[in-house]
Design brief:
By secondary structure, the protein is an alpha/beta fold. Helices cover 41% and strands 18% of the residues.
């Protein structure tokens, strides 16, 4: 495309956007699409599509999101021939690989699900990713191998089990690899959305810094292009240690270390739309996710012969869980494309459904509306949508008119309007909750406006009632879930009475991550509050609006989305960019009705045009509500704030209105970056100061140890009896812990027996022996590995303490050692054991070896279980400097060998299980042994 043609087309486009307004700055190829031309996301896409059509070329999807200037758009067009050719050569799939077997309905975790499929049909295609270069197919085996490489990389980067990892990636194969890589490494994925444009950098960082801090994120996975934003986040989030990319993680070699993963472990923290100052991260376990996925499968009849087509972003629960994880579980191939590709070319969504014979797809209401408005007949000539059996509409209010228009528009192309399926769900219930009968088509309930607005009575309206409200049925609760409608007093409402929607079931979250106040507001006994209002009619639930968004004015309830849809249809108002909210009048104490509408009409176009638009909005409000709005605000593009999934942030718009900042232009990108960098300086300095304080503390404790240890060693070496050596060390360790500032709490000293016994304790740190010596007044001859005899310093010291040495590698010698220890205990020498044998950096109580329990059973003496809590955090494996922190020792009741046991071995096993149960209950660490016993091969 010639430069002159591009500039001419852009001038025409700007004239259309701003009728009568002069271009204030010279238009050149280096004009910024944001700062100079004032284009928002949709306007940028529209300009790019027009340039693409005029040139006859093809703009890559990435250019739609990353182009900053006109020159960038034209440069991207230079690759159009190669891109178009690659796309044309992509072949239709002849098959999906190995025939699918039944879904793994008994799997306990998502990792188990992937492993099952990778074993059952490794070559079956799970994902087809579409982009400008064609398609990329990912089989179950390839997904598993890629996830293992990412998991190994995360572990090399220092990720510990149950630490959170943020994923800030666009839709791409790397997203799938990253999600399962985090799970396989034992981490917790936290999806966040990447910045759409450079001009959004400041708001993006501010919004996500609070989320990442609340999630205690240790690592951030992103794309190289987002490193600038990621570094700013790193400076603002205290626990964020590293920013990495998927190729960096997958570059190393070696398999990941096996990590125990349980059904109740967290598999996802999904932050609800608009989480800012009070982040609400919905905690979802593997059990929650699989319960919801299986419920979706039952409600939709999802099976391996289905094909799910999606453009929904993977950072949103509808795209991540409903589209991907559900299709993965039921072996249904997923055809997925970028959301940007859909926004620029909505026909590609329908073309993908037709080409791959898609049977299920889901989208918010605006997507169906966009298809009706933006797709020309010439773009979909020959399209066949007859395979599409479920067209789910959810994630935002479902508009009856949109359903009607979409059904009528695409019926000539084989689409069955009965496939339109309004659904409802929320992150707090994983993703899905309500679904109507399949194949019936939408059910629209028309109710009388007056009784409903004033009293919440959804009385049926007559067919000729032009003022009737319309609500779409979202059906009934999925299997194993329940819903109810309650009034303000918590009493369940009768049919056709509006109230708050509550729910319960196996998909329901356990609460918000590190947000106890939010969790208390969410959970009401066995029920959870959806935050939505609804009523039941004909046994089906009809959603009416968000509780926090409903405006109460003069005793009437006003539902914003209805008026927003009507105002958005007015010529001159930007569709989908209207916010209706209430703002409290401080003088009267009543709520004022405010309509905030974006328009491209500027003051330069003349007061008459804006006054006429204002009057049309007032008339439309009168027609819908029977009363005028208190204030109509005509605002420039970019004003109405939205969530990452496109929902109107009405509360944020209210704050913007109340603060008088509507219409304020965003500062230049460079100034945003400067402000962010300056704002990050304080947190960065505090982090460095905290690190310096930790280092100083660690060095102080090391110096303290260096002063106390030599004297203690000399006194121990000179002690004539082990009991005296133990008392010397007890005094020394208590002085060391006190001077170190480490608080030691000991519980259960009354359980210490007066007769010889065998003590067993969990082993998490080099500090454990020090802690036990300081905590327990009676002498125990601890058992240590025989290799310590090779070092004179440790040999002399440990022998003076009466330490018993055992063989770890020779099985026959180990049996003899156990018998010898039993005889020693029987002779009156109490022994102490760490039955785990060793410790690791990762938290978790490992399996217990039987030696200590065999010795106790053989000697017929009591076994004393002792749980140590907190030592691992104070001194973790691989570190040499101590950290501040409390340590707790809990001494359990002595356990006597079972007299009913058939032999000493059976008695030893019973002692082991009882002792381990006590220690597990008090050490505040997960049960690593249980998962290792039940883990699947990988």
């Amino acid at each position: 495309m010639q430069v002159a043609d591009a500039l001419t087309l852009t001038r025409q486009f700007l004239a259309e956007l701003h009728p009568g307004a002069a271009i204030r700055r010279p238009l050149t190829l280096d004009s910024s699409l944001d700062a100079d031309l004032g284009l928002d996301s949709l306007s940028r896409v529209e300009l790019a599509v027009r340039i693409e059509r005029a040139s006859g070329g093809h703009l890559p999807e990435q250019a739609l999101g990353t182009a900053v200037t006109l020159r960038d758009l034209l440069a991207a067009l230079e690759n159009a021939p190669a891109i178009a050719q690659a796309a044309a050569q992509a072949e239709l799939p002849a098959h999906w690989g190995t025939p699918a077997q039944a879904a793994p309905l008994e799997a306990a975790t998502l990792v188990d699900v992937l492993d099952w499929h990778a074993r059952a049909h490794p070559d079956r295609v799970q994902i087809i990713y579409l982009d400008d270069s064609g398609e990329t197919r990912i089989t179950y085996a390839q997904l598993r191998r890629a996830a293992e490489r990412v998991a190994a990389g995360l572990q090399r980067a220092g990720l510990l089990p149950r630490q959170t990892v943020a994923i800030m990636l666009p839709t791409s194969p790397e997203y799938f690899h990253a999600y399962f890589g985090i799970l396989r490494a034992g981490g917790i994925p936290v999806p966040i959305y990447p910045p759409a444009r450079a001009s959004q950098i400041e708001e993006h960082v501010r919004r996500h810094a609070g989320i990442l801090a609340n999630a205690e994120t240790s690592l951030l996975i992103t794309v190289p292009e987002a490193r600038a934003v990621a570094r700013l986040l790193e400076a603002r989030v205290a626990g964020l240690r590293r920013v990495v990319t998927v190729p960096e993680l997958a570059a190393g070699s070696g398999a990941p270390q096996a990590v125990a993963i349980r059904r109740d472990d967290i598999a996802l923290i999904q932050y609800t739309s608009g989480s800012t100052g009070d982040p609400k991260g919905v905690v979802l376990s593997h059990a929650n996710l699989l319960a919801n996925i299986r419920g979706i499968g039952q409600m939709t009849g999802l099976a391996a012969d289905d094909v799910f087509v999606s453009w929904l972003p993977l950072y949103h629960d509808m795209g991540l869980i409903c589209a991907w994880l559900a299709s993965l579980t039921f072996a249904a191939p997923l055809v997925v494309m970028s959301p940007l590709g859909f926004l620029a070319h909505p026909q590609r969504w329908l073309q993908a459904i037709a080409r791959y014979r898609g049977t299920i797809s889901a989208a918010p209401n605006f997507a169906y509306d966009l298809c009706v408005k933006r797709i020309d007949d010439a773009q979909i000539e020959g399209l066949d949508l007859s395979s599409w059996r479920i067209a789910a509409n959810g994630a935002e209010p479902v508009m009856p008119e949109t359903l009607r228009r979409f059904g009528e528009r695409f019926a000539p192309y084989g689409f069955n309007p009965a496939a339109l399926t309004p659904v409802y769900g929320l992150a707090e219930c994983t993703v899905g909750l309500l679904c109507p009968p399949l194949g019936r088509g939408p059910r629209i309930d028309r109710v009388r406006r007056g009784p409903f607005s004033t009293g919440g009575h959804a009385l049926p309206a007559s067919a000729d009632d032009a003022t009737a409200l319309q609500f779409v049925s979202c059906g009934v609760a999925m299997p194993a879930h329940q819903v109810r409608i309650v009034d303000s007093n918590g009493r369940e409402c009768s049919e056709r009475i509006e109230g708050r929607l509550e729910f319960r079931g196996p998909s329901a979250t356990s609460g918000y991550y590190r947000n106890p106040s939010g969790t208390r507001q969410l959970i009401n006994g066995v029920w959870q509050d959806s935050g939505d209002r609804a009523y039941v009619a004909g046994g089906e639930v009809h959603l009416t609006g968000r509780v926090k968004d409903i405006i109460i004015r003069a005793g009437r309830n006003i539902y914003p989305h209805e008026l927003e849809d009507v105002v958005g249809a007015i010529d001159g108002v930007r569709r989908g960019c209207v916010a209706v909210f209430g703002n409290t009048d401080t003088g009267s104490g009543t709520e004022r009705l405010v309509v905030l509408a974006e328009t491209r009409l500027t003051q330069a176009t003349g007061a008459a045009a804006r006054e006429a638009l204002h009057a049309r909005i007032v008339d439309a409000t009168l027609a819908v509500l029977g009363e005028a709005p208190d204030d109509v605000v005509l605002a420039p593009p970019h004003t109405v704030l939205k969530t990452s999934s496109g929902k109107i942030r009405r509360a944020a718009c209210r704050e913007l209105y109340a603060s008088g900042r509507i219409g304020a232009r965003a500062p230049p990108v460079w100034w945003q970056a400067v402000r962010l960098a300056a704002g990050s300086l304080g947190p960065l300095l505090r982090r460095h100061a905290a690190a310096a304080a930790d280092l100083a503390y660690g060095l102080y404790v090391a110096l303290l140890f260096g002063l106390i240890a030599p004297t203690t060693w000399l006194l121990t070496a000179a002690a004539p009896r082990p009991a005296l050596a133990w008392r010397i060390n007890r005094v020394a360790t208590r002085v060391f812990l006190r001077l170190s500032g480490i608080r030691l709490a000991v519980h259960g000293l009354e359980h210490l027996p007066r007769t010889p016994c065998v003590l067993v304790a969990n082993h998490a740190s080099y500090l454990d022996a020090v802690v036990l010596c300081a905590a327990i007044p009676m002498h125990f001859a601890f058992v240590a590995k025989r290799e310590l005899l090779e070092h004179p310093i440790s040999r002399i010291y440990l022998r003076r303490l009466g330490t018993q040495f055992v063989e770890r590698f020779d099985a026959r010698q180990s049996i003899e050692d156990a018998r010898r220890l039993g005889a020693a205990v029987k002779a009156g020498a109490s022994s102490g054991f760490f039955p785990e044998g060793t410790f690791t950096r990762a938290a978790g109580l490992g399996p217990f070896r039987l030696g200590a329990f065999v010795a106790a059973a053989a000697a017929g003496v009591a076994l004393l279980p002792v749980a140590i809590r907190g030592a691992r955090s104070v001194l973790r494996d691989g570190e040499w400097l101590l950290r501040r922190g409390p340590i707790e020792v809990n001494i359990g009741r002595p356990l006597a060998p079972s007299a009913a046991a058939a032999d000493d071995f059976a008695a030893a096993v019973a002692l082991r299980d009882a002792a381990r149960a006590h220690i597990l209950a008090h050490c505040d660490e997960p049960d690593a042994a249980a998962n290792s016993r039940g883990s699947h091969d990988s």
